[in-house]
Sequence to fold (464 residues):
Amino acid sequence: MIELSWLDLSLAAGLVLLLAGLLIHIGLDKLSLRLIIAGLRTTVQLFLIAWVLKFLFAQDHPFWVSLMALSMCLIAGYEVMSRQQRRFTGWWGFGMGSAAIFVSSFLVTLFTLLVLIQADPWYRAQYAIPLLGMVMGNTMNGISLSLDRLTQSAWQQRASLEARLMLGYGWSETIAEIRRDSVRTGLVPILNAMAAAGIITLPGMMTGQILAGSPPLEAVKYQILIMFLVAAGTGFGTLIAVSLGARHLFDQRERLCLQRLEEARH
Amino acid sequence: MTCLHVENLHYQALGPFSFELHGGECLGLSGPSGAGKSLLLRALADLDAYQGTVLLNADACHQLPPTQWRRRVGLLSAESHWWADRVGAHFHAVNDAQLASLGFEPAVLGWSIHRLSSGERQRLALLRLLANQPEVLLLDEPTANLDPHNSTVVETLIQQQRDLHGVAVLWVSHDAAQLARVAQRRLHLVNGRLEYLA
Fold:
């Protein structure tokens, strides 16, 4: 593998700076600032994670691996909450997304580590953390998209939802269509990614392995595995989150409880 | 005989309200906008949280499944809402005679919702509700969007429900003349107080 020098990275950063300058030139000052901040964040965050991974790989202790996994889950849960236009009030806003991410990505990743990859030991950080990261990142995306769709639709369609309740429909029947829409919304990105893989896009992980010198066939096998895991993780996570969310829009007496949603302050 | 028994009902910051509504009877409810008339109907249909006792015959509201309660105590909101494209998709069951009684042909079930005028929507919303065969009807300005002819048609249909099926009716209206026409007793809700009008 050809190693990158600091000069290489600086030259690549130069491209981003050039773009930032161009944006300022056409009056997009704020966007330019955001680009630079995003570039700095990427650099700092990725270097930090490199240190963390280096530490984790050196220790390879189940405690550190689980600590890392748990913090990833909590951060993802927070991220899901902060991406909602209308989020559930109180602990539900954070708990619903985190619980769905936790159950779905952990189970899918555990299954992969124990049954498919069978590294020795099975919790080996080199496999566990990247796999969990990829499954969790995509699951988080699906869950936040679907919950956003769920709460927005319920808010907009409150009158027709209540019309159904008034006619004696149960809560589940009342919200069924919105629930299906929300699940569909959550699954669209991974469906698109799977359909486009290899034709329109070369998936990042596979590209990385090829750059690192893996034979294309091995890289592709890993990529297919990842695609399936991500699809399963995203799908299960989205189903869990949407089910919990849809139920929580109604109280015990099957009344629509939109006061359980609050508008995000941003 | 049906009887809706309301005792010490509190909802939002309003109440306590107590009254009884008997089968075949129509109780009129008037009051200024924002007095809480619609909220009263919503509480009675168990769509909003409330404190107090609401009984339908011997059945307490909180002891029945909410879906069953709302089929027996049917609320017709001031504005009707539709969720599917076709009229027919909103009906559990409907017979041609009922459609005809409000001036519709059976083909209306195949119509697109967007073709309906606001008056047609309101009349169909009433039929949609009657398909549940409710024992109590909570009507929130049921003729607000209707012309005089159609108002009379609706009044007649409600009267039939009372006479033939012993349905109890709580009728909210701003139209004092209409309430004088349809209701035996009249309640007035103002400043958080519920009073009988002579």
Observations:
- Chain B touches chain A at residues 45-49, 62, 66-68, 70-71, 74-75, 77, 79-83, 92, 128-129, 132 (CB under 8 Å).
- The first strand of chain B starts at residue 3 and ends at 11.
- The radius of gyration of chain B is 16 Å.
